[in-house]
Structure formats: C-alpha cells, structure tokens
Amino acid sequence: MSVREEFDEWAASGKDRGMEDRHWHTAKHVLARMPVEDGDAVLDLGTGSGYVLRALRERGIGRGYGLDGAPEMANNARGYTDDGAVGFLVGDFDELPFADDALDHVFSMEAFYYASDPVHTLEEVRRVLRPGGTFYCAVNYFAESETTHAWQENISVDMTLWSREAYRAAFREAGLYVAEQDAIPDRETEIPDASEFPTDGYETREAMIDRYRTWGTLLTVGVAP
Ligand SMILES: C[S@@+](CC[C@H](N)C(=O)[O-])C[C@H]1O[C@@H](n2cnc3c(N)ncnc32)[C@H](O)[C@@H]1O
C-alpha cells in the first residue's frame, strides 16, 4: 500500500483524531521548546489532523503549512481548522514545495520515519529553512525503544528504524547542526496494574513502562547553517 492508501484509510476511520489525542502528551512538550516568534512561517511534515499548527498559531506564528501525503488527512485537517493563516497541502517528504530559505521552522511528529529516503528529506528540510531556522523532529519509533519495533508488522509503508546516534549522524550528513537530542517521556498514558497484562499490545507492565515512561518520544533538533 502507498502512503496515500494507508493513511487515507486512517483518516476515514477517525484515527487522525486518535493520534492527535495520544501524540499531544509529548508533542506539547516539544512545541514548548520550539523558539517560534511572532510572524514566523512553520511547516508541519506529516501533519495528520493539523493540531500542531493550530497550537502554534496560538503562540503567534504568522503562517502555518501542513504537508501530508494522504489527501483525506489534509481534507480532514482543513475541516478542523478555521484560520486563513494555516494551509494544508498534499505532497511527499521527497520534494518539499517551498523555495530555498522560505521557512523559519519545520516540525514533525511521528511521521519522519515514513520518508522513502530520509537523508534526502533532511536535505530538503535544510534547503527550505532560512539560516538559523530549526527542525524539531519527534518520533516514537526508534532503535532504543524496543517495544515499538513490532509496529512495522502492522503497516504496509516501510519505516526507517534509526538509533539516537543514527538520527544525529543523518542530520549532520544532510548539513544540519544538531542542537539538541532528548527522550521525552509520556507521563499521561495510563499504565494498568500488572495483573491486567497482556493488554493494549503489551505482554508485560514493564514493556509498557519502557515504551511510555522510559523512552516516549525521541526529539532531535537540527539547525540550518
Ligand atoms: C502517524 S501519522 C502522524 C500525524 C501527526 N503528525 C500526529 O502527530 O498525529 C503520520 C502522517 O504522516 C503522513 N506521511 C507519511 N509518509 C509521508 C510521506 N512520505 N510524505 C508525506 N506525508 C507522509 C501520513 O499520511 C500521516 O498523516
């Protein structure tokens, strides 16, 4: 299945809002670290329901662009957003439809590892960022978070499984400085009592703690030279 087919289905079945609810637990902490200023132009890669741009508009950004490969995701996001300064585009991470140096910041939550050529996507991010612009790249699927590795079995789109070190190396290879890397725990998802396991796809309570509390979301921050 293509990105379009896979994620159009997710959008049609309401998974876009479900992801928003779950990802907000850590995305809000990532957004709080972003050095956005009034009037900034920000791109959200793999925007899903578009919640990140609505939150950033409340912080004063001037223009938000949500790019997604699934037209139904973009349609839904438009329907949830009553703001002329936020636009949703259908496109692919391989080729970002922006001029060189056009953007102040790029954000991505739980989407980057679907890129078919992730280093090229990083080069594209670097190209569209103005000097000093930042890329806040947040993923829950990464090598150190071992309980997430099985996710690939449930989705037809190829996922890139990088370690923390591989993320830093790839950012540098694409010409971005690495300003920060951190694992942001999800302290809100409820973890049931040990007697209730297996549940929610986790064999043991320890495995669920590892996924949410120990690892959570890996944030890598790149800065364009
Ligand atoms: C797991 S969802 C995350 C959505 C949102 N960022 C969130 O936090 O809820 C991944 C999104 O990335 C989009 N996506 C995946 N691969 C893509 C690609 N190569 N180009 C553009 N969008 C892509 C999907 O359509 C989907 O909406």
TrEMBL record:
Any one GO molecular function term: S-adenosylmethionine-dependent methyltransferase activity
SUPFAM superfamilies reported for this sequence: S-adenosyl-L-methionine-dependent methyltransferases
Taxonomic superkingdom: Archaea
Classification via CDD domains: AdoMet_MTases
All copies of domain Methyltransferase type, residue ranges: 43-137
Pfam families reported for this sequence: Methyltransf_11
Stored Gene3D superfamilies: Vaccinia Virus protein VP39
Keywords: Methyltransferase, Transferase
GO biological process terms on file: methylation
Database matches in PANTHER family: TRANS-ACONITATE 2-METHYLTRANSFERASE, TRANS-ACONITATE 2-METHYLTRANSFERASE-RELATED
Protein name: Methyltransferase domain-containing protein
Organism in which the protein naturally occurs: Halorubrum sodomense
